[in-house]
Amino acid sequence: MPGEAAKLPPEITLTFVEAREIDPPAGVTPAHWRLLTTHAVTTLTDAKQITGFYRARWMIEQLFRTMKSKGFDIEAVRVADGGPFENLTAATLIAAIQVLQLVRERDGAAGRPLEDVFDPEDQSAMEAICASLEGRTEKQKNPHPKGSLAYGAWVCARLGDWTGYYVQPGPVVMLQGFLRMKAIHQGWTMRGAR
């Protein structure tokens, strides 16, 4: 786009930030980052902020992965001139963030409430679904308190075909379970409307 190039500034000032891991775990190669940024970096606090931004990159990659082909597949949407693509993208972003909230709270470490992702009226349906998903072994029982986001994350993970064993569920499994939970809840709500 020739017109777009004209909008760019004639020059950009970059700052180089180098960060090295001082005390890595035994047998692990220390992290060594060389970062370029357009942010002004004049103090150690500024440099720490830049490395903090960089450390968040994996979560950002997970967000895009959840929105794109491994998740909601926003890239497959046909775009029509004047269509509501921006609204669809915003709604997909919100849903992808909710999925990542479930992933981050799957162990209950932050103690977040269920309402961070779900409506309060979802709780009774979620508890009924949870009872149907729990197995006989301790690993197949929801270890989190009712009303916690970790409780909801466990239910979504099980609905996404996580067995409760082996590795923790990631965004793809959590998304599948989240979508199933929403569909089940819709049926639950329609049943109560009769």
CATH homologous superfamily descriptor of the largest domain: Transferase Inhibitor Protein From Tn5, Chain
Helix-residue proportion: 40-55%
Q: Which CATH class of the largest domain?
A: Mainly Alpha
**Helix-strand pattern, N to C?**
HEEHHHHHH
What is the average of the pLDDT values?
89
Low-confidence stretches: none
* CATH-defined topology of the largest domain: Transferase Inhibitor Protein From Tn5, Chain A, domain2
Total E-strand runs: 2
What shape does the CA trace take? globular
Provide the gyration radius in Å: 22 Å
Specify the CATH architecture of the largest domain: Orthogonal Bundle
**Count of domains:** 2
Describe this structure in words.
The chain has helices at residues 2-6, 44-55, 57-67, 85-104, 123-133, 149-159, 171-192, and strands at 15-20, 32-37. The protein starts with a helix and ends with a helix. Helix 3 (57-67) packs across helix 4 (85-104) and helix 6 (149-159) crosses helix 7. Strands 1-2 form a two-stranded antiparallel sheet. The model has no long low-confidence stretch (mean pLDDT 89). The chain contains 7 helices and 2 strands. The protein is mostly helical. It has 2 domains: 9-55, no CATH class; 62-192, Transferase Inhibitor Protein From Tn5, Chain A, domain2, CATH 1.10.740.10. The longest helix is centred in the C-terminal third of the chain and has 22 residues, at 171-192.
Quick structural overview:
The protein has 194 residues and is mainly α.
